[in-house]
Model the fold of this input.
Amino acid sequence: MPEILSITVARRTIGDVVTAAVVHHRPVPIERNRRDQALVLGRDDILRLVSGHEFHPEVFSEEGAVSIWLPEFALYGRGGSFVEAQEDLLDEVRLYVDGYVERAGEFLRAPNRAHHYPWVLRALIAEMKDELAEVLFAEPAESSAMVGLETAAV
Amino acid sequence: MPLPTYKELRDFCKIDDWVDLKEKRSAVQGRKGQALDHYRYEKVLPDGRILQTKVSRGAGRYGDPNLWRRIWRDQLGLDDEDQFWEALRTRKPVDRAVAQPEPPPASATAKPGWLHKNLVLIVGIPEAEVLALSAQEAHARWTEFINQERPPTADE
Done:
């Protein structure tokens, strides 16, 4: 097992800690006052953990408007076209992730919000990589697998 | 049952003791440079659930029953649409049941966002035509496209 670094050592060697986590993909455990424990992980390693948490936006249309409902966060975007509704939804997701991160302790205690956490990380990382729209509107893996099966059966 | 106007939803939030998030969120919105084009409300229930919704500032009403169903069920935390209209009629807050198990995240009958995007951008079907397709028809068009024979590319 890797050694747990004290906060003092971690602070002094923060560059090495980030290199270990990001470049060498090593989780780095850190402890403060023998009580508060943290684990530093590289962004792409966290992405590995949450990549199975996909989004399933649903599109609805009405006279002169398009709505896109995002069931993972119970949010929607709305606009005069699909593109406008998509932009509105992206803003909603950014606001929601901001709010969730800011009030994480509270949201993680809420029975209807706690399970959003991996999707929040997924969206946060997608935004860091400037690919939020692509991630939200990616074809889910289970759907691709189904198309593959149908193709194989033809 | 009619679909509600934005004003009716705003009235509901006031009657049902929701908190206006305007001040809490304005800092975030200001940072992002986004306009305050919606009222945003939040209600924390005794069982710990945090409910959130947004309502347009303008006049008008919701036009799609599928969207409205998700709003009253998943955002307002109601068991039944009647609870919404009852609160407006009696001017009394809703008496909610304790938290129920979460519904599965996606509906089997709704048209997925990725499918809409692929039909427009990859298959090249006009957006108005895609919007008019049912979920089943949209899936069929995508499967047909995936399965059709294409000339080999230069790499092949």
